[in-house]
Amino acid sequence: METRQDRYSGAKQKKLDQLKQLIAESDNIVFLGGAGVSTESGIPDFRSGEGIFNQETGFNYRAVDVVSHSFFVEHPEEFYDFYRKKLCYPDAKPNKAHKALVRLERQGKLIATITQNIDCLHQMAGSKTTIELHGSVHRNYCIDCGKKYKLDFILGCEGIPRCTKCGGIVRPAVTLYEENLEHDKVDSAIKAIKKADLMIIGGTSLTVYPAATFVQFLKHDRVVIINKSSTHLDLQALLTIHDSIGEVLDYVVPKRKPRTTTAKASTKTASSSKTAKKTTTAKKAASSKSSSSKKSTSKTSETEKKTTSKRKTKASEKK
Length: 319
Hints:
The protein is an alpha/beta fold. It contains ten helices and nine strands. A six-stranded parallel β-sheet has the order 3-2-1-7-8-9, sandwiched between helices. Strand 4 and strand 5 form a beta hairpin. 29% of the residues are buried.
């Protein structure tokens, strides 16, 4: 939902230009994203009007309860039925937001992409700095022997997926409600945020903890929020844009290297070219001098020979 100010094209453009400038001035950017980053890839979010938590589950349970640890333990068959239908999207592809973040990473400006999503789309787009707070549907393991499985195995099973080695239940490596996040993931996220000179928060309502509290680790107020709906940090952020995160990031992140870099490279090339020309000219001049010197020496030598010959002839006549 756009704010009244964002409806005016001039005001929206001003915000986009401001975000462009902030990115240009920053060298250690951290992105924190939620379900809204993947909606443009056809994956529904959780809390919007059409989100998973507001859809009919087909069971006598609420969706928010189905994705909890206790439900998984008590009703595993119903859990997997819901899981396959509502949380797994094997055909989803990275969208403009994922690709723009990869460009920003390759330009050396984005040091970490912290995601609450479990779809692995950031990595599919080419990201090397993704920190998955809640795991991934593409990683699964046996809870008894630890054998690992891919998503295809879960989708290819009916009912409760069982380990082919020991018969134990194969569960997704995702963090369910009532479960703790992996400590190393949280530590990596906080460490990156402390280094950040700009933090961009996108596609999240900032209601899921502890991610919702990560901004407290920043040592400044350089926070940008890009989200269709409002968040509790909108008024505290340096810049807030209520719009499509894919469209915004695709616009503000250049698709090629900044012109300044190209200009510097051109200047260096021109300078090298001039130096090469000077060197070539100097070599030609030196070669020319050397040739003239040789000719002069040759002429002198011939003159000396003639003089010597004349002296010998005169001496012979006197005798």
